[in-house]
User: Which sequence fits this backbone?
């Protein structure tokens, strides 16, 4: 199951006209990137939960065939949290096989086969795919002892010396990828908002169930903010020896300067415009003399009359565009 129902408030205004998983990413929608990853890892039947701008996810994925999977969409009239999302889709899952759940905002090459082996060897109710967090980024710490999850903590402090089973005391963080047995539904309430990490798993641990920890290596990017979305895009573009990602119908005129940038559909960069380390949303025009660096830009008409979410960056209208300056 791909979790794709969130509002994407920290990605606003990029999410004003589409859901976070429908954002363009490396030549495909982000949720399509996740679906391709699951297909490579051997999954063919995938459910996707929907809430915010559901039509944008349906349009981006279709029936899933071009990404190598068969899709089932599960609508959420209200946001239900991770546990509630699973409850809402429980009829999709087989009653005798483990299943995987992944956030729809990830880009990764983590080996899910290895995680499944850990899951089976541990005889676990659930297995959380973890990774070391040596930089102590703001992700909740997972307490691990003897290969099992014992609990969940706050964000690590820069001076922390402990943090579960990480190397040399390095804290461990949850990647948003998990493998579950159907018995998990014994710990998920029916028809209400709930989370697995704050409710189902602590309850299961108290009951003596095993929640295994699989500490993975490999690439892992989480694209929940504009900065992470842009930084990840730039990093992967450089690996592919290019510096611009261009959507359908976009063009850069002779004399336009563009580097380390993501241009969505129908973007035009005119002669004399400079675009560097920027995201230009659908239909944006960078006119001669515009200097867009470390910014996200959408058409101003999209944000008129809308209220900026609390967690979103402030922006300003410049002509036909709405420009959000990104912190560096």
Assistant:
């Amino acid at each position: 199951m791909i979790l794709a129902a969130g509002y994407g408030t920290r990605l606003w205004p990029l999410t004003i006209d589409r859901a976070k998983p429908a954002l363009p990413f490396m030549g495909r929608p982000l949720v399509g990137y996740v679906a391709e990853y699951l297909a490579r890892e051997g999954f063919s039947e995938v459910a996707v939960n929907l809430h915010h701008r559901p039509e944008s996810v349906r349009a981006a994925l279709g029936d899933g065939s071009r990404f190598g999977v068969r899709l089932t969409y599960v609508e959420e009239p209200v946001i239900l949290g991770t546990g509630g999302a699973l409850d809402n889709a429980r009829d999709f899952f087989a009653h005798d096989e483990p299943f995987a759940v992944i956030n729809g905002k990830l880009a990764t090459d983590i080996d899910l086969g290895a995680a499944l082996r850990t899951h089976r060897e541990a005889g676990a109710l659930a297995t959380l795919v973890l990774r070391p967090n040596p930089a102590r980024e703001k992700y909740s710490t997972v307490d691990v002892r003897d290969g099992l999850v014992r609990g969940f903590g706050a964000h690590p402090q820069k001076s922390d010396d402990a943090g579960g089973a990480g190397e040399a005391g390095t804290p461990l963080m949850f990647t948003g990828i998990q493998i579950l047995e159907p018995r998990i539904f014994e710990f998920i309430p029916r028809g209400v908002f709930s989370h697995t990490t704050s409710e189902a798993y602590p309850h299961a641990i108290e009951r003596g169930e095993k929640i295994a920890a699989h500490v993975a290596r490999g690439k892992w990017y989480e694209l929940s903010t504009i900065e992470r979305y842009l930084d990840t895009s730039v990093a992967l573009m450089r690996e592919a020896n290019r510096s611009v990602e261009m959507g359908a119908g976009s063009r850069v005129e002779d004399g336009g300067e563009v580097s380390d940038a993501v241009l969505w559909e129908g973007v035009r960069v005119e002669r004399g415009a400079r675009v560097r380390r920027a995201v230009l949303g659908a239909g944006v025009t960078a006119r001669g003399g515009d200097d867009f660096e470390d910014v996200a830009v959408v058409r101003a008409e999209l944000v008129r009359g809308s209220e900026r979410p609390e967690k979103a960056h402030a922006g300003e209208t410049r002509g036909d565009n709405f420009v959000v300056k990104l912190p560096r």
Summary: DSSP finds seven helices and 22 strands in the chain. The mean pLDDT is 93.
